[in-house]
TrEMBL record:
Subcellular location, principal: cytoplasm
Protein name per the record: Late endosomal/lysosomal adaptor and MAPK and MTOR activator 5
Molecular-function GO terms, alphabetical: guanyl-nucleotide exchange factor activity
Family membership: Belongs to the LAMTOR5 family.
Keywords (A to Z) from UniProt: Cytoplasm, Lysosome
Protein's cellular compartments: Cytoplasm; Lysosome
Record flagged with keyword Hydrolase: no
Organism lineage: Eukaryota, Metazoa, Ecdysozoa, Arthropoda, Hexapoda
């Protein structure tokens, strides 16, 4: 969140439950974010903690 380009951050467990949300991140999107990260992990099986960055419109 220290980066001015970040408008929100969401942390979720592997079951899709929200652990924490800051900024404009919605805790209601935790499940879909986990599903996206599971797909991202398949792209690089050696990475155990994929980071998903979403960009929308002007953000």
């Amino acid at each position: 969140m220290a980066n001015p380009a970040n408008v929100g951050c969401l942390l979720a467990n592997n079951q899709g439950l929200c652990i924490g949300a800051r900024g404009k991140a919605s805790d209601k999107s935790a499940g879909i974010i986990v599903a996206i990260s599971e797909q991202a992990a398949k792209l690089d099986p050696n990475c155990n903690a994929p980071v998903v960055s979403l960009e929308v419109g002007d953000k």
